[in-house]
Amino acid sequence: MKLQPDRLDVQSILAYGAGWVGLGNNGVAEKIDYSVVIGSRGEKFAWNCASFEQLDAGHFTVLANLKPELVIFGSGKRLRFAPPAFLRGLMEQRIGIETMDTLAACRTYNILAGEGRHVIAALLIEPDAA
């Protein structure tokens, strides 16, 4: 599905599909086919996990260290919640976390980033089975 934001001045998700997301920043588009962390303040790095089962507390500690006001966790093709123990660092710093499937997380990230909020999207990109 292709997304058309009105005009975002921050890193945004331009499109997404099974096994990929398209990022845009300052007129440059990039197709990402691996799990990734992106942020409204320009943060972007690979999130070293190819499946939900590979996640551990360390993946979420990295997010807490970025000190956003909110983390959007895209849990892959379907909605799955990380164990509460993994989220301890976020909760201790009073950083909000919302969990949704990755495609919903893409849409939500664009809305919140467009509002000027410091938001991080941690997107689990699972390989397309097709």
From TrEMBL:
It comes from the Bacteria. SUPFAM superfamilies: MTH938-like (SSF64076). InterPro entries: MTH938-like_sf (IPR036748), NDUFAF3/AAMDC (IPR007523). It holds the Pfam family DUF498. This is Mth938-like domain-containing protein. It comes from Polaromonas naphthalenivorans (strain CJ2).
